[in-house]
Design brief:
With about 110 residues, this protein is mainly beta. The chain contains no helices and 6 strands. The protein has a 6-stranded antiparallel beta barrel. Strand 1 and strand 2 form a beta hairpin. It is globular and about 50 Å long.
């Protein structure tokens, strides 16, 4: 297995998992919980401006390459530069020791 050069992993990001928690009253709440932080190579793929409810919003798509793990999945969230992103695709490359996360800015 070849490894990626650590020098290109120069950005810090955090991955969050969606967990169900039960309150003392028995209510189920859905919380985003910090799972783990990773060093990454983050690239902005595209940015576009959208009009939604008479206000302009940015729709940014980025990719992030991190060392191989099978713990990060579609549906998790990523935080980078104080912005939350939904992980919409994960490309696993175990042979070369990395995965690529495709992410879109969270809308909720």
């Amino acid at each position: 297995m070849t490894m990626i050069n650590a020098g290109i992993l120069d950005e810090r990001l955090a991955v969050y998992k969606h967990v169900n928690e039960q309150s003392q009253l028995g209510e189920i709440t859905y919380e985003w919980t910090l799972f783990k932080s990773y060093w990454a190579d983050v690239r902005q793929v595209s940015t576009r401006k959208l009009l939604e409810a008479n206000r302009e919003i940015d729709d940014t798509i980025i990719t992030a390459m991190i060392r191989y793990t099978d713990s990060v999945r579609v549906g998790d969230r990523m935080k980078w530069h104080d912005r939350l992103y939904d992980i919409s695709n994960v490309e696993y490359n175990k042979k070369d020791g990395y995965i690529i996360l495709s992410c879109e800015v969270c809308t909720e």
